[in-house]
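FYI - complex with L-tryptophanamide, inputs then prediction.
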Amino acid sequence: MIDGKKVLFSGMQATGTLTLGNYLGALKNWVTLSEEYECFYSVVDLHSITVRQEPAELRKRARNLLTLYLAAGLDPQKNCIYYQSHVSGHAELSWILNCFTYMGELNRMTQFKDKAAKHADNINAGLFTYPVLMAADILLYQTDMVPVGVDQMQHLEITRDIAQRFNAVYGDVFTIPEAYIGKSGAKIMSLQNPQKKMSKSDENPNASIYLMDEPDVILRKFKRAVTDSEGQILYREEQPGIRNLLDIYCACTGKSPEEAVKEFEGKGYGELKEAVGETVVSVLKPVQDEFARLSEDKSYLDSIIKENAQKANYYATKTLRKVQKKVGFPERIR
Ligand code: ATP
Ligand code: LTN
């Protein structure tokens, strides 16, 4: 608890360009949640180097991602928006938690298996212990709630296991976090293959809507979206392409699938695609405009980065000192 509010933590990696999936499945919900919780939203750059990065490119993407957090509507006075690498407590706690995590547990992580297969030439120890760093991110702020996609559930489970194991030895040190899986936009699928999730690392640019796509590009991508030959607009499993378009429409408008189906009754696929495209354009336009405006304001951004890193460090250090004392490190002489 901070000032009577429950604590929420989440983060995103600055790898690739954010997609509509990231926006509807994560960022948009973060803004809603920020009213109710004391929130920490991190650009998790320590996680990014588990795969090779070009330094200048990583720095640029990390800054763009932080700017996007703000552009999407997160108020930096109310939410702590910062770079993970600016708070050394993440790495320090991660080391300690490594000593409370078993090889067998990490071996079961499906993300590790996937990424190891994808980067066979660089299966480094950081990739293996990635979930421990994620546990440190969360536990460092005594987090109650973690909004994540279903793909991150396994990492949240291991975080809870590590925390419970530590608490069993040393008493109630860590708050045990709960996952929060948002309802709307939970899984936006690829426009080219509706069986696959929309992902920023997809090789086919037509499969994903990028947050910075121009309106005509967005409309064109929707026009080309893969559908089916059923010829009717219904929300059902047998029509994954149409269902995905309706999901996107609902996540953008707040309408229910039933309402959307009713609205498009008797209409053709072309009309649906155009309507969804236009809705997405109107949702992304203010974010794009605000991103452009903020990107120009270097000194404002720098002041946010500095102040929020200080705030994050304050809370991180509080937990870290407690943990260091519990495990038996000598007291600091001041
Ligand atoms: P990558 O392609 O590099 O795996 P990604 O696009 O899957 O990246 P992540 O960085 O893994 O994105 O996820 C950032 C956040 O966005 C997470 O909370 C994740 O659950 C959410 N997210 C990612 N893709 C989607 C999607 N298609 N639908 C809904 N939410 C998504
Ligand atoms: N692993 C997550 C990003 C991430 C995260 C976190 C999410 C790193 N640390 C802590 C929630 C809480 C991902 O790849 N989406």
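DSSP finds 13 helices and five strands in the chain. Strands lie at 7-12, 38-43, 80-83, 145-147, 178-180.
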